[in-house]
Amino acid sequence: MFLFNYHYRLKCIFNDKQLMFWTFVFPILLATLFNLAFSNLSSSDNFLKVNVAVVQNEELNQNADFTQALDSADNLFVVQKTTRADAEQLLKDNQIDGYLYFDPDLNLVVNQSGLNQTIIREFLNDFIQSSSTIGTIITQNPAALGDGLLASVTSRTEYLSAVSASQSNPDPIVNYFYTLIAMTCFYGGFLGIKEVVAIQADLSDVGARINIAPTKKLTVFLSSILAATTVQLLELLLLLAFLIGVLGISFGNQLGYITLTCVIGSLTGVTFGTCLGAIVKKGEGLKISILISSTMMMCFLAGMMSADMKYIIMTKAPILSYLNPVNLITDCFYALYYYNTHTQFFTDILLLCGFTILFSSITYFVLRRQKYASL
Protein backbone atom coordinates (compact mmCIF):
# COMPACT_ATOMS: atom_id res chain seq x y z
CA MET A 1 0.00 0.00 0.00
CA PHE A 2 2.86 2.35 0.83
CA LEU A 3 4.59 1.95 -2.55
CA PHE A 4 1.29 2.05 -4.43
CA ASN A 5 0.32 5.38 -2.89
CA TYR A 6 3.89 6.69 -3.35
CA HIS A 7 3.75 6.06 -7.09
CA TYR A 8 0.20 7.40 -7.27
CA ARG A 9 1.16 10.69 -5.59
CA LEU A 10 4.20 11.05 -7.85
CA LYS A 11 1.93 10.88 -10.91
CA CYS A 12 -0.50 13.37 -9.38
CA ILE A 13 2.28 15.87 -8.64
CA PHE A 14 3.89 15.61 -12.08
CA ASN A 15 0.48 16.03 -13.75
CA ASP A 16 -0.26 19.24 -11.81
CA LYS A 17 1.09 21.81 -14.30
CA GLN A 18 0.42 24.82 -12.10
CA LEU A 19 2.28 23.21 -9.21
CA MET A 20 5.23 22.28 -11.42
CA PHE A 21 5.43 25.84 -12.74
CA TRP A 22 5.74 27.48 -9.32
CA THR A 23 8.11 24.89 -7.85
CA PHE A 24 10.37 24.36 -10.88
CA VAL A 25 9.88 26.69 -13.87
CA PHE A 26 9.45 29.90 -11.86
CA PRO A 27 12.77 29.55 -9.92
CA ILE A 28 14.63 28.93 -13.20
CA LEU A 29 13.07 32.02 -14.77
CA LEU A 30 13.92 34.06 -11.67
CA ALA A 31 17.51 32.78 -11.70
CA THR A 32 17.83 33.83 -15.35
CA LEU A 33 16.56 37.33 -14.51
CA PHE A 34 18.99 37.52 -11.59
CA ASN A 35 21.85 36.61 -13.90
CA LEU A 36 20.87 39.29 -16.41
CA ALA A 37 20.52 41.92 -13.68
CA PHE A 38 23.71 41.09 -11.75
CA SER A 39 26.03 39.95 -14.53
CA ASN A 40 27.95 43.28 -14.66
CA LEU A 41 27.61 44.18 -11.00
CA SER A 42 30.92 42.65 -9.90
CA SER A 43 32.88 44.12 -12.81
CA SER A 44 31.57 47.59 -11.93
CA ASP A 45 33.61 47.44 -8.70
CA ASN A 46 36.92 47.11 -10.58
CA PHE A 47 39.27 50.06 -10.21
CA LEU A 48 39.53 52.29 -13.26
CA LYS A 49 42.69 54.33 -13.73
CA VAL A 50 42.46 58.09 -13.28
CA ASN A 51 42.79 60.18 -16.44
CA VAL A 52 45.12 63.10 -15.87
CA ALA A 53 46.90 65.57 -18.14
CA VAL A 54 50.29 67.22 -17.56
CA VAL A 55 51.09 70.54 -19.20
CA GLN A 56 54.29 70.23 -21.21
CA ASN A 57 56.52 73.29 -20.55
CA GLU A 58 60.05 74.25 -19.56
CA GLU A 59 59.33 73.97 -15.83
CA LEU A 60 58.20 70.35 -16.27
CA ASN A 61 61.42 69.54 -18.12
CA GLN A 62 63.39 70.90 -15.16
CA ASN A 63 61.55 68.60 -12.70
CA ALA A 64 62.70 65.16 -13.78
CA ASP A 65 61.91 63.76 -10.31
CA PHE A 66 58.22 64.53 -10.74
CA THR A 67 58.15 62.97 -14.21
CA GLN A 68 59.80 59.86 -12.83
CA ALA A 69 57.34 59.67 -9.92
CA LEU A 70 54.38 60.06 -12.29
CA ASP A 71 55.71 57.34 -14.59
CA SER A 72 56.08 54.97 -11.63
CA ALA A 73 52.39 55.47 -10.78
CA ASP A 74 51.18 53.94 -14.05
CA ASN A 75 48.91 51.63 -12.05
CA LEU A 76 46.97 54.70 -10.90
CA PHE A 77 47.03 57.17 -13.77
CA VAL A 78 46.58 57.41 -17.50
CA VAL A 79 48.76 60.42 -18.31
CA GLN A 80 48.51 62.73 -21.30
CA LYS A 81 51.16 65.39 -21.93
CA THR A 82 49.70 68.38 -23.70
CA THR A 83 49.47 72.16 -23.76
CA ARG A 84 47.53 74.09 -21.15
CA ALA A 85 44.85 75.15 -23.65
CA ASP A 86 44.29 71.55 -24.71
CA ALA A 87 44.25 70.46 -21.05
CA GLU A 88 41.53 73.03 -20.32
CA GLN A 89 39.47 71.70 -23.22
CA LEU A 90 39.93 68.10 -22.13
CA LEU A 91 38.81 68.99 -18.62
CA LYS A 92 35.81 70.89 -19.95
CA ASP A 93 34.82 67.86 -22.05
CA ASN A 94 35.21 65.58 -18.97
CA GLN A 95 37.83 63.50 -20.77
CA ILE A 96 40.25 63.95 -17.86
CA ASP A 97 39.71 64.27 -14.10
CA GLY A 98 42.25 67.07 -13.72
CA TYR A 99 45.49 68.44 -15.05
CA LEU A 100 48.86 69.42 -13.55
CA TYR A 101 51.24 72.22 -14.43
CA PHE A 102 54.33 73.96 -13.06
CA ASP A 103 54.23 77.78 -12.80
CA PRO A 104 56.77 77.61 -11.19
CA ASP A 105 55.27 75.50 -8.35
CA LEU A 106 53.25 72.38 -8.95
CA ASN A 107 49.51 73.10 -9.36
CA LEU A 108 46.39 70.99 -9.80
CA VAL A 109 43.26 72.10 -11.69
CA VAL A 110 39.94 70.22 -11.42
CA ASN A 111 36.34 71.14 -12.19
CA GLN A 112 34.62 68.99 -9.57
CA SER A 113 35.20 67.11 -6.32
CA GLY A 114 35.26 63.33 -6.33
CA LEU A 115 37.24 60.16 -5.69
CA ASN A 116 39.50 60.54 -8.72
CA GLN A 117 40.31 64.13 -7.88
CA THR A 118 41.15 63.08 -4.31
CA ILE A 119 43.52 60.41 -5.62
CA ILE A 120 45.36 63.01 -7.69
CA ARG A 121 45.57 65.41 -4.75
CA GLU A 122 46.90 62.72 -2.38
CA PHE A 123 49.54 61.73 -4.93
CA LEU A 124 50.69 65.35 -5.21
CA ASN A 125 50.74 65.79 -1.44
CA ASP A 126 52.86 62.67 -1.06
CA PHE A 127 55.28 63.85 -3.76
CA ILE A 128 55.58 67.36 -2.27
CA GLN A 129 56.11 66.00 1.24
CA SER A 130 58.78 63.54 0.09
CA SER A 131 60.54 66.22 -1.97
CA SER A 132 60.53 68.58 1.02
CA THR A 133 61.95 65.87 3.29
CA ILE A 134 64.71 65.03 0.85
CA GLY A 135 65.60 68.71 0.43
CA THR A 136 65.82 69.17 4.19
CA ILE A 137 68.07 66.11 4.57
CA ILE A 138 70.43 67.26 1.81
CA THR A 139 70.64 70.76 3.32
CA GLN A 140 71.21 69.74 6.93
CA ASN A 141 73.11 66.45 6.53
CA PRO A 142 74.64 65.87 3.09
CA ALA A 143 76.46 62.79 4.42
CA ALA A 144 73.13 61.00 4.72
CA LEU A 145 73.16 60.53 0.97
CA GLY A 146 75.91 57.99 1.37
CA ASP A 147 74.21 56.20 4.27
CA GLY A 148 71.18 55.10 2.26
CA LEU A 149 68.84 57.45 4.13
CA LEU A 150 67.61 58.99 0.90
CA ALA A 151 66.54 55.58 -0.42
CA SER A 152 64.59 54.87 2.78
CA VAL A 153 62.63 58.12 2.35
CA THR A 154 61.49 57.28 -1.15
CA SER A 155 60.71 53.61 -0.44
CA ARG A 156 57.30 52.42 0.72
CA THR A 157 56.96 49.40 3.00
CA GLU A 158 53.64 47.62 3.61
CA TYR A 159 53.29 46.32 7.16
CA LEU A 160 49.79 44.91 6.70
CA SER A 161 48.76 42.16 4.34
CA ALA A 162 45.25 41.07 3.39
CA VAL A 163 44.61 37.39 4.13
CA SER A 164 41.46 35.72 2.86
CA ALA A 165 39.51 33.49 5.23
CA SER A 166 39.15 30.92 2.44
CA GLN A 167 40.31 30.02 -1.03
CA SER A 168 37.21 31.71 -2.52
CA ASN A 169 36.95 35.45 -2.94
CA PRO A 170 33.99 37.14 -1.21
CA ASP A 171 31.21 37.68 -3.72
CA PRO A 172 27.98 39.37 -2.58
CA ILE A 173 26.23 38.37 -5.80
CA VAL A 174 26.18 34.64 -5.01
CA ASN A 175 24.07 35.31 -1.92
CA TYR A 176 21.13 36.29 -4.17
CA PHE A 177 21.29 32.92 -5.91
CA TYR A 178 21.72 31.04 -2.63
CA THR A 179 18.61 32.78 -1.31
CA LEU A 180 16.81 31.81 -4.50
CA ILE A 181 17.60 28.16 -3.79
CA ALA A 182 16.34 28.57 -0.24
CA MET A 183 13.13 30.10 -1.60
CA THR A 184 12.77 27.11 -3.93
CA CYS A 185 13.13 24.79 -0.94
CA PHE A 186 10.27 26.56 0.80
CA TYR A 187 8.18 26.59 -2.35
CA GLY A 188 8.15 22.87 -1.67
CA GLY A 189 5.58 23.93 0.88
CA PHE A 190 3.11 23.96 -2.05
CA LEU A 191 3.61 20.22 -2.26
CA GLY A 192 3.22 19.84 1.49
CA ILE A 193 -0.07 21.74 1.50
CA LYS A 194 -1.34 19.62 -1.41
CA GLU A 195 -0.64 16.42 0.51
CA VAL A 196 -2.34 17.66 3.66
CA VAL A 197 -5.42 18.78 1.72
CA ALA A 198 -5.49 15.40 -0.02
CA ILE A 199 -6.08 13.57 3.30
CA GLN A 200 -8.53 16.05 4.85
CA ALA A 201 -12.05 14.81 4.34
CA ASP A 202 -13.63 18.26 4.67
CA LEU A 203 -11.40 19.76 1.94
CA SER A 204 -11.20 17.11 -0.79
CA ASP A 205 -13.07 14.06 -2.08
CA VAL A 206 -9.81 12.11 -2.04
CA GLY A 207 -9.45 12.89 1.64
CA ALA A 208 -12.96 11.62 2.32
CA ARG A 209 -12.17 8.32 0.60
CA ILE A 210 -8.88 7.97 2.49
CA ASN A 211 -10.58 8.54 5.84
CA ILE A 212 -13.16 5.78 5.25
CA ALA A 213 -10.72 3.35 3.63
CA PRO A 214 -9.45 0.41 5.75
CA THR A 215 -5.89 1.74 5.69
CA LYS A 216 -3.83 3.66 8.19
CA LYS A 217 -4.00 7.35 7.42
CA LEU A 218 -0.45 7.82 8.75
CA THR A 219 0.93 5.31 6.25
CA VAL A 220 -0.82 7.07 3.38
CA PHE A 221 0.36 10.46 4.57
CA LEU A 222 4.00 9.38 5.00
CA SER A 223 4.08 7.91 1.49
CA SER A 224 2.58 11.14 0.15
CA ILE A 225 5.18 13.27 1.95
CA LEU A 226 7.96 11.05 0.63
CA ALA A 227 6.64 11.54 -2.91
CA ALA A 228 6.47 15.31 -2.41
CA THR A 229 10.02 15.41 -1.02
CA THR A 230 11.29 13.29 -3.92
CA VAL A 231 9.84 15.69 -6.49
CA GLN A 232 11.09 18.72 -4.59
CA LEU A 233 14.61 17.30 -4.31
CA LEU A 234 14.66 16.41 -8.03
CA GLU A 235 13.57 19.94 -8.96
CA LEU A 236 16.20 21.42 -6.64
CA LEU A 237 19.00 19.34 -8.14
CA LEU A 238 17.94 20.36 -11.65
CA LEU A 239 17.95 24.01 -10.55
CA LEU A 240 21.45 23.56 -9.13
CA ALA A 241 22.61 22.01 -12.40
CA PHE A 242 21.17 25.00 -14.27
CA LEU A 243 22.85 27.52 -11.96
CA ILE A 244 26.24 25.80 -12.12
CA GLY A 245 26.28 24.54 -15.70
CA VAL A 246 24.45 27.34 -17.51
CA LEU A 247 24.79 30.47 -15.38
CA GLY A 248 28.20 29.63 -13.93
CA ILE A 249 27.34 30.27 -10.27
CA SER A 250 29.99 28.91 -7.89
CA PHE A 251 29.00 26.54 -5.07
CA GLY A 252 32.45 25.22 -4.26
CA ASN A 253 33.51 21.64 -4.78
CA GLN A 254 31.97 19.94 -1.73
CA LEU A 255 29.23 18.13 -3.61
CA GLY A 256 28.36 15.80 -0.74
CA TYR A 257 27.60 18.64 1.66
CA ILE A 258 25.75 20.54 -1.08
CA THR A 259 23.51 17.51 -1.65
CA LEU A 260 22.96 17.19 2.11
CA THR A 261 21.85 20.83 2.22
CA CYS A 262 19.41 20.20 -0.63
CA VAL A 263 17.93 17.16 1.13
CA ILE A 264 17.53 18.90 4.51
CA GLY A 265 16.26 22.09 2.84
CA SER A 266 13.67 20.14 0.84
CA LEU A 267 12.45 18.34 3.95
CA THR A 268 12.22 21.62 5.87
CA GLY A 269 10.27 23.31 3.06
CA VAL A 270 7.82 20.43 2.54
CA THR A 271 7.17 19.98 6.28
CA PHE A 272 6.67 23.75 6.61
CA GLY A 273 3.88 23.42 4.05
CA THR A 274 2.33 20.45 5.84
CA CYS A 275 2.44 22.40 9.12
CA LEU A 276 0.62 25.37 7.56
CA GLY A 277 -1.84 23.04 5.85
CA ALA A 278 -2.66 21.34 9.13
CA ILE A 279 -2.91 24.47 11.29
CA VAL A 280 -4.93 26.70 8.93
CA LYS A 281 -8.48 25.38 8.89
CA LYS A 282 -9.74 27.34 5.90
CA GLY A 283 -9.48 26.45 2.23
CA GLU A 284 -6.41 25.71 0.15
CA GLY A 285 -6.28 29.25 -1.28
CA LEU A 286 -5.73 30.81 2.15
CA LYS A 287 -3.11 28.22 3.05
CA ILE A 288 -1.15 28.99 -0.13
CA SER A 289 -1.45 32.75 0.44
CA ILE A 290 0.02 32.40 3.93
CA LEU A 291 2.80 30.16 2.55
CA ILE A 292 3.80 32.68 -0.15
CA SER A 293 3.70 35.71 2.14
CA SER A 294 5.68 34.03 4.93
CA THR A 295 8.25 32.65 2.48
CA MET A 296 8.74 36.04 0.85
CA MET A 297 9.16 37.68 4.25
CA MET A 298 11.83 35.15 5.23
CA CYS A 299 13.56 35.64 1.87
CA PHE A 300 13.55 39.41 2.40
CA LEU A 301 15.16 39.04 5.82
CA ALA A 302 17.72 36.64 4.32
CA GLY A 303 18.84 39.29 1.80
CA MET A 304 17.09 38.21 -1.38
CA MET A 305 15.83 41.72 -2.18
CA SER A 306 18.76 43.56 -0.60
CA ALA A 307 22.06 42.17 0.67
CA ASP A 308 22.18 45.03 3.20
CA MET A 309 19.12 43.59 4.97
CA LYS A 310 21.01 40.40 5.79
CA TYR A 311 23.83 42.49 7.29
CA ILE A 312 21.36 44.60 9.29
CA ILE A 313 19.71 41.50 10.74
CA MET A 314 23.06 39.97 11.68
CA THR A 315 24.24 43.12 13.46
CA LYS A 316 21.01 44.46 14.98
CA ALA A 317 18.97 41.30 15.67
CA PRO A 318 21.18 38.21 15.14
CA ILE A 319 18.63 35.91 16.79
CA LEU A 320 16.36 36.41 13.77
CA SER A 321 18.99 34.94 11.47
CA TYR A 322 18.84 31.69 13.46
CA LEU A 323 15.03 31.67 13.60
CA ASN A 324 14.75 32.13 9.83
CA PRO A 325 15.10 28.74 8.06
CA VAL A 326 15.47 30.43 4.66
CA ASN A 327 18.49 32.30 6.01
CA LEU A 328 19.89 29.05 7.43
CA ILE A 329 19.73 27.36 4.03
CA THR A 330 21.38 30.38 2.43
CA ASP A 331 24.15 30.36 5.04
CA CYS A 332 24.76 26.64 4.47
CA PHE A 333 25.62 27.26 0.83
CA TYR A 334 27.69 30.35 1.61
CA ALA A 335 29.60 28.53 4.38
CA LEU A 336 30.53 25.77 1.91
CA TYR A 337 31.56 28.35 -0.68
CA TYR A 338 33.56 30.68 1.56
CA TYR A 339 34.73 29.11 4.84
CA ASN A 340 37.49 26.51 5.25
CA THR A 341 35.83 24.99 8.32
CA HIS A 342 32.39 23.39 8.65
CA THR A 343 31.41 24.78 12.05
CA GLN A 344 28.89 27.26 10.65
CA PHE A 345 27.60 24.72 8.14
CA PHE A 346 26.79 22.02 10.68
CA THR A 347 25.29 24.57 13.05
CA ASP A 348 22.87 25.62 10.31
CA ILE A 349 22.14 22.00 9.36
CA LEU A 350 21.30 21.06 12.96
CA LEU A 351 18.97 24.05 13.27
CA LEU A 352 17.24 23.08 10.01
CA CYS A 353 16.79 19.54 11.31
CA GLY A 354 15.26 21.02 14.44
CA PHE A 355 12.79 23.04 12.35
CA THR A 356 11.93 19.93 10.31
CA ILE A 357 11.19 17.95 13.47
CA LEU A 358 9.13 20.84 14.86
CA PHE A 359 7.03 21.24 11.70
CA SER A 360 6.55 17.46 11.42
CA SER A 361 5.51 17.15 15.06
CA ILE A 362 2.95 19.94 14.80
CA THR A 363 1.55 18.39 11.62
CA TYR A 364 1.28 14.95 13.24
CA PHE A 365 -0.46 16.09 16.42
CA VAL A 366 -2.90 18.38 14.59
CA LEU A 367 -3.91 15.76 12.01
CA ARG A 368 -4.09 13.03 14.64
CA ARG A 369 -6.77 14.92 16.56
CA GLN A 370 -9.00 15.56 13.55
CA LYS A 371 -12.33 13.75 13.75
CA TYR A 372 -15.32 13.93 11.42
CA ALA A 373 -18.92 13.58 12.59
CA SER A 374 -19.97 12.32 9.17
CA LEU A 375 -18.50 11.83 5.71
Automatic annotation (TrEMBL):
Keywords for this protein: Membrane, Transmembrane, Transmembrane helix
Membrane disposition: Multi-pass membrane protein
One GO cellular component term: membrane
Chain ranges passing through the membrane: 20-38, 173-193, 225-248, 255-280, 286-307, 345-367
Domain ABC-2 type transporter transmembrane: 17-364
A Pfam entry, by short name: ABC2_membrane_3
PANTHER family in the cross-refs: DOXORUBICIN RESISTANCE ABC TRANSPORTER PERMEASE PROTEIN DRRC-RELATED
Protein name from the UniProt record: ABC-2 type transporter
